[in-house]
Design brief:
Blueprint (H helix, E strand, L loop, with lengths): L2 H19 L11 E2 L2 H6 L2 E7 L5 E10 L4 E10 L6 E2 L7 E6 L5 E6 L6 E6 L12 E2 L8 E5 L5 E8 L8 H14 L13 E2 L2 E2 L4 E8 L13 E2 L20 E3 L5 E7 L14 E7 L7 E2 L8 E6 L5 E6 L11 E6 L5 E4 L7 E6 L5 E6 L7 E5 L5 E5 L3 E8 L2 E8 L2 E9 L6 E2 L5 H5 L1 E2 L3 E7 L5 E7 L10 E7 L17 H6 L3 E6 L8 H5 L8 H16 L3 E11 L1 H12 L6 E5 L5 H7 L4 H7 L7 H6 L13 E6 L8 H12 L4 E6 L9 H19 L7
Parallel strand pairs: 1-32, 35-36, 35-37, 37-38, 38-39, 39-40
Antiparallel strand pairs: 2-3, 3-4, 4-5, 6-7, 7-8, 8-9, 10-11, 11-14, 12-13, 14-15, 16-17, 17-18, 18-19, 20-21, 21-22, 22-23, 24-25, 25-26, 26-27, 28-29, 29-30, 30-31, 33-34, 34-36
């Protein structure tokens, strides 16, 4: 076979190989099996769909679990918006993420660790001679890791973030930061000295560095250009993190359509941000990309959260999200339009009682598209910018990362029965198409439980919703034990989505009937319903859970109400601790993961103080009664239910002494109990090996108390 023949053969079989690698080929004939934790973590996870400028292609990220390396591996893929031409763009041991198109639509900028640190790279992907991975070129070569990435509309600049020491000189802030880090690594002390702000946050101790927003001009052509020296645009706000920690990203920035300026969100809270742990006052700042003047605050009048700016196509209007109540992280996000010439602002769809998760414009600027939680679903909506009329475009499931692709919208969608795949619709919601099927073979080999939404009369006579999932392999006439899952937040929801930490199908696959309740405080049912939990953690939510479980058992006779376990994490962990003292005779066993045990020490030990101050009614010393009214520790004398306690060493949101104390109380009272501890995990259990071990221990605990005859008493 000649070299030309070999190349022709490879071009012929390449699409088939891509489909095979994606799990998109028809499943081989095999007996379906119940869903397992291993199945959960073997699913390929799609994210960050980015349509090309002409709307004909979508670049996206696929995460594959590497069990041997005990981590996820991220690669870039490409597919047509019609579902054709699925192509794997990168395949190596590096982390390749954040694909962003060149304005001509022929190439992608992306972040990669292939050089040994996270840097910006570029890859030609479309054109007369599409490139392969070997054609990728490095665009930045900085001594610090590059995070987040935006490309200006005209392709002249890149925006990204770097962690820097803000007290370094502006002219040498990157080099100075690198020198300090090297010196610290060689130093003889590990001591840290703090004057205020976050000492530790989420899962990391502060070392004095801040996220700063940098912009670098691109020299040369789109094919061979390198990034110039970065300009620190957030330098005048040196003690602010841009983007915010721990979860903020490039959605907090936006280039103007002409590429000459950028708007970003930042929080300043007193001198050196001393008040940062109890402030949610983010503002939007506008600054030219050359840094020729300091950032200008656009939203100083609002003392609550302003974020996620987006320019209209003509550059005359800025859309963004705004909260109204300072100190409340779960307030409704209102959609605001700002006339950039006059500064005049107006709210869009003000009477629509849902909280937006971000917006983008139609090409003519007359329509806004947004995602928002809604009655146990997370749909995609269209909003008329003039009238505020809201139209639901995608009704069921959990929509992710919607983006405009020509005359269509591309988005990710998952449900209780399937992980995220990519879909597209016309901008009026018609002609829906599934354009990827990455886990088709895996899903075909799995026997899922059937989900069903139900509702009942909860606390105060309000209508409350929940979900039931039948056990996999359900048999009529058989009774099944119950796994009663309680969501965290507390302003959250167990909605119609495929969750990678608390997936109801895992319990259904293990032979359990699954019940979840969106109690008072849950999102997607109007802001008043969300507000109802604040200062009442152990009140209306407990009533909803009690009534919801009773309603499910009455409605579904195949549930065995005498064999039930309650499980929850974060606020759900608080609630299982609360149930232990205030509903002690209902469950055979409990599982409390990262749960609050003592509200007093929770206040003094957590990092984001705005959260307990809003939820319990101020600092502890000003309102101890508010904290003690919802304090599980005061009812330990009533505890009797066997409990599995799970906590992690890097959880600084709910510090691990809460888990230790819970276990100590159980042991001292002689209650059957176990303590599962992860020293290297945060508020979530993320490493594949640890996640599998978590499921193994939790399911074993349920089986012990709900399936073994000797545990009946």
């Amino acid at each position: 076979m000649t070299q030309d023949d070999q190349e022709d053969l490879m071009r012929t079989i390449a699409p088939v190989l891509a489909l095979a690698l994606a799990g998109a080929l028809p499943a081989a004939a095999q007996q379906p099996h119940p869903f397992t934790p291993r199945d959960l973590h073997e699913m390929q996870r799609l994210s960050d769909p980015q349509p090309s400028p002409d709307g004909r292609h979508v670049a996206f990220v696929v995460r594959t679990t590497d069990f041997a390396a005990n981590k996820g591996r991220n690669d870039l893929w490409l597919v047509g918006t019609d579902g054709g031409g699925l192509t794997r763009l990168t395949a190596n041991d590096a982390a390749d993420t954040t694909p962003r198109w060149t304005p001509d639509g022929k190439g992608l900028y992306f972040l990669s660790t292939r050089s040994g640190s996270s840097q910006v790279w570029r890859l030609p992907v479309l054109g007369t001679e599409p490139g392969t991975e070997k054609d990728a070129v490095q665009v930045t070569d900085l001594p610090l890791d590059v995070s987040n990435l935006l490309v200006s509309p005209d392709g002249s600049h890149l925006a990204f973030s770097l962690e820097v020491f803000p007290d370094c000189a502006a002219s040498s802030i990157i080099a100075c930061t690198k020198e300090r880090l090297d010196a610290k690594e060689k130093g003889k002390t590990s001591a840290q000295l703090y004057d205020g702000g976050f000492v530790r946050h989420w899962d990391a101790w502060s070392d004095g560095r801040r996220n700063h927003l940098f912009v670098a001009a691109l020299a040369g052509t789109a094919a061979d250009g390198k990034a110039g020296a970065p300009v620190d645009l957030s330098r005048p706000l040196s003690d602010a993190d841009v983007p915010s920690r721990p979860f903020g990203g490039a959605e907090e920035w936006a280039f103007s359509p002409d590429g000459k300026s950028i708007v970003f969100a930042a929080r300043l809270a007193g001198e050196k941000n001393r008040e940062e742990p109890w402030s949610t006052n983010f503002d939007l700042y506008e600054v030219p990309v050359d840094g020729s003047r300091e950032p200008r605050n656009l939203t100083a009048a609002n003392l609550a959260w302003d974020t996620q700016p987006v320019f209209s196509p003509d550059g005359k209007t800025l859309a963004y999200l705004r909260m109204k109540r300072p100190g409340f992280e779960a307030d409704r996000f209102w959609i605001v339009l700002r006339d950039l010439a006059t500064g005049k602002e107006r709210e869009v769809a003000g009477d629509w009682d849902r909280s937006s998760e971000g917006v983008f414009f139609s090409p003519d600027g007359r329509t806004l598209y947004t995602i928002a939680g809604d009655t146990g679903q997370t749909p995609l909506f269209a909003i008329d910018a003039a009238s505020g009329k809201v139209t639901r475009l995608v009704a069921e499931g959990h929509v992710h990362s919607a983006a405009l692709a020509g005359d269509r919208i591309v988005f990710g969608l998952d449900t209780l029965r399937a992980p995220v795949d990519l879909y597209s619709i016309k901008t009026d919601g018609s002609d829906r198409r599934q354009i990827t099927s990455f886990n088709r073979e895996r899903l075909a080999a799995i026997r899922f439980g059937e989900p069903e939404q139900f509702h009942f009369e909860g606390a105060g006579g309000d209508t409350v919703y929940g979900w039931v999932v039948k056990p996999a392999g359900f048999e009529a006439g058989k009774k099944y034990p119950i796994a009663f899952l309680i969501h965290g937040g507390p302003q959250g929801s167990f909605n119609n989505e495929f969750h990678y930490r608390w997936n109801p199908q895992v319990y259904a696959g293990a032979g359990y009937a699954v019940v979840t309740i969106d109690f008072h405080g849950s999102t997607g049912y109007g802001q008043a319903f969300t507000d109802a939990i604040s200062k009442d953690w152990g009140g209306k939510p407990l009533v909803d859970l009690q009534k919801g479980l009773a309603a499910a058992i009455e409605r579904y006779p195949w549930m065995d109400g005498d064999r039930a376990a309650a499980l929850g994490a974060s606020y759900g962990g608080f609630m299982t601790n609360w149930i232990a003292g205030h509903w002690p005779d209902r469950f055979r066993c409990l599982v409390t993961h990262d749960g609050v045990f003592d509200q007093r020490m929770m206040y003094y030990g957590t990092e984001e103080l705005w959260f307990p101050e809003w939820e319990q009614g101020g600092p502890y010393w000003t309102n101890p009664e508010g904290y003690e009214r919802n304090n599980p520790i005061l009812a330990v004398d009533q505890w009797k239910t066997p409990m599995l306690v799970v906590h992690s060493g890097l959880d600084y949101r709910i510090p691990d002494n809460q888990g230790y104390a819970t276990f100590n109380a159980l042991q001292r009272r002689g209650i059957p109990s176990r303590f599962l501890y992860f020293p290297d995990e945060n508020h979530w259990v993320l490493k594949p090996g640890n996640a599998l071990r978590w499921h193994e221990v939790v399911l074993d605990w349920l089986d012990r108390w709900l399936k073994q005859p000797q545990a009946a008493k």
